[in-house]
Amino acid sequence: MKTQEVMRSYAQLKDFSQAIFKSIGCNEADALLAADALVAADLRGIDSHGVARLSGYVRLWERKRINPTPDIRIIHETPSTAVVDGDAGLGLVVAPKAMQIAIDKAKQVGTGWVSVQNSNHFGIAGYHAMLALAQDMIGMAMTNASALVAPTFSTERMLGTNPIAVAIPAGEQPAFVADFATTTAANGKLEILQRKNAEAPLGWVQNQDGEPSTDANILKQQGALLPLGSDREHGSHKGYALGSIVDIFSAVLSGASYGPWAPPFPAYVPMPENMPGKGLGHFFGAMRIDAFRPAEDFKQHMDNWIQRFRNAKPVAGQARVLVPGDPEREIAAQRMEAGIPLVESVAKDLTELGQKFGIDF
Amino acid sequence: MKTQEVMRSYAQLKDFSQAIFKSIGCNEADALLAADALVAADLRGIDSHGVARLSGYVRLWERKRINPTPDIRIIHETPSTAVVDGDAGLGLVVAPKAMQIAIDKAKQVGTGWVSVQNSNHFGIAGYHAMLALAQDMIGMAMTNASALVAPTFSTERMLGTNPIAVAIPAGEQPAFVADFATTTAANGKLEILQRKNAEAPLGWVQNQDGEPSTDANILKQQGALLPLGSDREHGSHKGYALGSIVDIFSAVLSGASYGPWAPPFPAYVPMPENMPGKGLGHFFGAMRIDAFRPAEDFKQHMDNWIQRFRNAKPVAGQARVLVPGDPEREIAAQRMEAGIPLVESVAKDLTELGQKFGIDF
User: For position B3, what pLDDT does the model report?
Assistant: First the structure.
């Protein structure tokens, strides 16, 4: 049975989100920025990270874990680096501002690298990485997150799904945009199975003893998501290493809270004890293409790269080989035109959220 | 039946390799550098990338694809970036010199990023990344390689095993060193199975039609290695994205030959037609820790990070949770003491190689 769906336009969801962010005390510009970052997830088909989380941000604000008027500032820097204190602001606001610092540094010295402490959930990594594209730069974004992932051979959850995004400009072709959790499957994929009462494929999760499981609800019983690779024989130590690198670049380098001490997103989950740093951490990079070779040359070769990969011979049953970013861009074009479908429970949640602040959903 | 093994000390293998590199025309210092980089693989247990490849480098030199006296030079730079032309030198020599440029730039402006064109196989990525550690820097190294890997949904081999290494300093604890191919299993793992006449686990390779295969020799019949994740359901599109990022940073950014046009390592394989750039490409990064926070603070937190992860509760049947770099460091300590075992075929190959140049193995 298909879940009932409610349609809203991109503009409607963005206006609504902006109004909510203003209601919790964000100024006009920050509320717009946060709404733009948030609804980019819905537009690109990453429904778990968009308006479905809006009431979650509000609950964090209610617990005073989000500061709607943060003093976001550089606390240490060199010509190519900075550490930013997000002052407990919305990650949706802190992240694009930190990315802008990386871009500004790249303008000056070729590349810019910014590690952020004291922030919160920043939406989809791809949004922030893509901010570099218009400047003819390669953009990178990553973040740590609350621990749901068991390292290889561990029964304990030690890492978040710690995504990595890399956006690379092309010429005639659309940009290459990779944006992925460093786990076999993102938590949002599990949530979809939970709603359908379906089982998870083997290799996505383990139970509390570290045994393979197909229970999509296993995280509620101390189970864990598995690093990309699923098991040792299939390279889970590599996914574990990637998630660790994201954690260290985002949180150990910045002074945020890392590993199992990363602050949880759900407001009802108590904060970890003895946190070794402040809030969540992010890491951003911007590399000016012409710091390496003329941008036009590069883009021409990227077009060649993309076309060659897209024209690779596909396996039987598949129409074509995709280039990273293709599926999200195609969904975005379709949803910008036809609207964004919301499952009934999300629409209900947003309606109630609107009522709380006197905003019509 | 266990293959017969021949033991040599680390010093013996390094001296022998240096003598061979001198014999093909490298000067004393370059031959030493190349030997140090090459034998680091044997020492760390990555047998496929060490002296087992020495005769392969010599065959490339015989075909005039390796220049033993390269003019390695910066062809473009900014304060934090450089593009290096390796002048067809040994990757084992070009790579540490390019990494040194990244380190020097990091000393000046916080970070340094170097993309390299016109190079050759550089041994293990971890060796180059680890050069940053003594400077209290994070080191990164990656390289493209000849196409053996099929992207998700592709029957064609489009990417190399394109490894990524990241080395991160700690304090009392040994450094965090991740070094891994962006495939489910490195090609060296397949070669071990081939010698044993054993099957490969499902998820490592596919046949020429893109169907799952357990044939460890399938690459000889137009089969392909699979990206980390193995199949779409287990995230192979993420491994494909990672391998692509390595290819683009190493080769499109530098002007090397990319994707299916990367030059092959075996000298008997003809060069691809219509190569879009020069030779193999690498990418190196160095980030000064104190460009972000005081090095002592960082290292103390890295010690905490490492200890917490190493003390995570292990699954039944495993003694402990490993931190990236643990296995290789432990093998290195053991082999430095007890010697490095070589399979009989490699020892025979090295004996014959020595005879060619009048060097005793």
Answer: 60
d(CA A105, CA A109): 6
Task: From B325, B318, B161, select the one nearest A248 (Cα to Cα).
Answer: B325
Q: What is the pLDDT of residue B232?
A: 97
Please give the model's pTM, rounded to 2 decimal places. 0.98
Measured in residues, chain A has a length of 361
Overall residue count recorded for chain B in this entry: 361
The confidence score (pLDDT) of residue A1 equals: 42
- Report pLDDT for A3: 60
Closest CB to A312: pick one of B158, B182, B314: B158
Helix (H) or strand (E) holding A347: helix A344-357
Q: Examine the pLDDT at A23 and tell me if it is beyond 60.
A: yes
Sheet holding A212-213, edge to edge: A212-213, A205-206, A224-225
SS3 label, residue A120: coil
Task: Work out the mean pLDDT of chain B and round it to a whole number.
Answer: 97
Distance (Å, rounded) from C-alpha A6 to C-alpha A343?
6
Residue with tokens 């944006």, as numbered in its chain: A179
Determine whether the interchain pair B293/A254 forms a contact, defined as Cβ–Cβ distance below 8 Å.
Answer: yes
Checking DSSP bridges between strand B81-85 and strand B73-78, what pairing results, if any?
antiparallel
The Cβ of residue A124 has, within 10 Å, a number of other Cβ atoms equal to: 27
**Chain B hits for A238, Cβ within 8 Å:** 178, 180-182, 228
Residue B2 confidence (pLDDT)? 54
Of A302, A305, A314, the CB nearest to B155: A314
Domains and CATH numbers, chain B: 5-184+226-294+329-357 (3.30.1370.60), 185-225 (3.30.60.50)
pLDDT digits (tens, 9 = 90+) for B96-143: 999 999 999 999 999 999 999 999 999 999 999 999 999 999 999 999
Q: How far is CA A35 from the centre of its chain?
A: 14
Identify the H or E element spanning A58.
helix A54-62
Instruction: Give the number of beta-carbon pairs within 8 Å between A and B.
Output: 253
Q: Which of A81, A211, A255 sits opposite B111 (nearest CB)?
A: A81
> Looking at residue A283, what DSSP letter applies?
E
Tokens of B194: 């081939």
Asked if A292 and B83 come within 8 Å (Cβ–Cβ), the reply is yes
Whole-number Å distance between alpha carbons of B179 and B46: 10
Nearest CA in chain B to A305: B259
What phi-psi label fits residue B132: left (phi over 0), alpha (psi between -120 and 50 degrees) or beta?
alpha
DSSP-assigned beta bridge partners for residue B283: B115, B142
Per residue, the 3-state secondary structure of chain B, as one string, reads CCCCEEEECHHHHHHHHHHHHHHCCCCHHHHHHHHHHHHHHHHCCCHHHCHHHHHHHHHHHHCCCCCCCCCCEEEEEECCEEEEECCCCCHHHHHHHHHHHHHHHHHHHCEEEEEEEEECCCCCHHHHHHCCHHHCEEEEEEECCCCCECCCCECCCCECCCCEEEEECCCCCCCEEEEECCECCCHHHHHHHHHHCCCCCCCCEECCCCCEECCCCHHHHCCEECECCCCHHHCHHHHHHHHHHHHHHHHHCCCCCCHHHCCCCCCCCCCCCCCCCCCEEEEEEEEEHHHCCCHHHHHHHHHHHHHHHHCCCECCCCCCCCCCCHHHHHHHHHHHHHCEEEEHHHHHHHHHHHHHHCCCC
